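ok here's Protein arginine N-methyltransferase:
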Amino acid sequence: MFNFQGMEAAMLQMGLATYSDTTTFTDMLKDEDRNEKYLKAIKIAVERKQVENKKSIVLDLGCGTGLLTMMALSAGADFVYACDEFPHNISCCKKVLHTNGMDNKRVKLIAKNSKQITVGHNLDMSRKANILVTEIFDTELIGEGCIASLNHAKAHLLTDDAIIIPERATLFAQVVDCPLIRDLSIFKPIEISETMRITFPETITNCSSKTNADQGLDLIELAPGVDFRKISLPLSTFQYDWATSEKIPEDFDTTKTEFVVNSTAEANAVFTWWEMQLITDEEVAEEDLIISCKPRWARGAPTYEWRFHWQQSAYYGFKPVPVREGNTCYLESYRGKDMRNKDGYWFKITQDPRSEFLVDVSDPFQKIKVNACLCYFHDATSPYHFAMQHDPIRTELYVKLLRKCIIPDVSICLCLSESSIILPLLAVAMGAKIVYIEEQEQYGKLSSLDLITSLLMHNNLPLRVHSLDIQDKNGIPGNKVQIVLGDPFYREKLDNYLQNHVPPLGQRYSPWHHLTFWRRLNQIPPNLLNANCIILPNVVKIKGLAVNFDNFSRPFTPLAASVCGGRYDLQDFTKMIAPPPSTSNPRVGYHTLWEHSSKASSEVFNLLEIDFTSKPNNLEFSKNIKLHTNANAVVFWCEWKFGKDDDNHNNVLSTGLLGDVGIGSKPKWYMNQAQAVIFSKTTWSERLDLNIELNMLDARSSPNLSFSVRG
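and the structure:
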């Protein structure tokens, strides 16, 4: 099966650190709205210099494949300097220019970061540029260091009358009440019974962790009035005017924006997106020179340009504020370095016009305090697993099961899951005599046991949770485990992961990665478990569904022979990122599909069923799937069964499809875990033939399913 090491090395050289980067880069090249608007803006800039009887000297800052360089050359630029700090990008750009017949004396490639470029005789640039074009922008706009790069270029690489494309950009923010997003960082109380509930201290609920405070999301699938309520209109927060001579602050900046509350609600999240004015021209309609990442529900016009490479963001790492319709509130916006020294944003909502900013700009510790998780709970796991642990559907099932299984002050439990905070807590609340957890790594200053102990104390519960090395053959003197519990959830070891899989987006894992539970279960010495030990979950089913995505397949399909209306050939880039020709195995990506609209093309099918009382083993098998309509992807997920069959399926937790779905209908996906997706290179019709291998026995790597697909 396919090993990605060769492709990983190429991507790292090119500056494409992960599989997600190659797909976003491909999607950017396919973005015809972006391409046509950049081409139009570049033509306007070159024509202006011609009218002024000046040579047009262009600097393409961060040239990548060379697409903007070719636009400048075809627009009539006299000379183009194309710079990129990644040598593999420069190599790709050189090949692309040659293929398009543009590797001539009018272009020079510079393999440097723009801040290292020198200007003068026999130096990198013989003269300063009077046109700069760049697209070093991400979903947050500033995350790729555009502020520092453009400040430096204006000061050292450009003439005073230089035209900068884009001319300006604005970050818009909208204050909302969105429980789905809020739950990614705030634990909700868990109802155990009419007289008992689990609560969480303010150190957790008020933690302003930037670690969990922004997500590149496709917000179009969130429905206004259903999934969230608009509390403010879209607010202009940060404006970046690169056309002026003023230097934009690089380290830190703040704004305070007044707004009138639209709806009585809880302000618990901020949605953001940006709009970019490439150039201003009285003879061209303004909308033809503006690139907008505004979500569909925020647009007045029916048209919508879907993008994967530039999406929207949701910020949720701040204390929720109850607000009342008609009242005046203030959005405090902060721009600065996060804990990774990456430019980013965070926000605070207040009803007090005299409220002071969260930070003293002159005090660097204050910046760290805003950015860091000081409660350690957010650092203990990913935002999605954080939300999954206090998902009411899951906690209600756990409480129901534990109520049936646990004999108060008698039962001994073992929790087999990594970063599981809630499950041991619930077991103690239901009366377990002892709850063991696996020995785990430290999170900041605290271990998982420390975090659980602090919550037990906060809820006045007995301190009955202890850590255990499950491979200790000496077992537990005088005790045997009667109940084994699992979320199940396990972190991926990235070094092993990169050898065998496509890297996840952030902390998104494959559904079958958590089969580590099966492996760990079978590593427990027999003398540790009671003869009638209850295993929960006891069965897992890996299920699948063929779908047809409305837009989401675009980044994962091959680039066309030419882009921008057939003007430019970028097949050299396609060849560079293509997997070795010796394999036809597809890439498996892991994505939270609630963000992406699709329709079912097949019936739901069972791929694999595993009973955890059996021994882990490697498997090879085939599956034939009938397609009722065309499909461009097939999706996989896990269903975990807890206990005996339930006619109403109330003992099953799905990490993928929620409920039933008919052919041609829109599936509803679980939000807090990623699903596995294989995209087709061409449309599938009639049937799919799957060949699958399950690797469970290689202790050096995580459980893995490998596929070959023929449609």
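+1. Residues 1-19, 493-507 have pLDDT under 50 and may be disordered.
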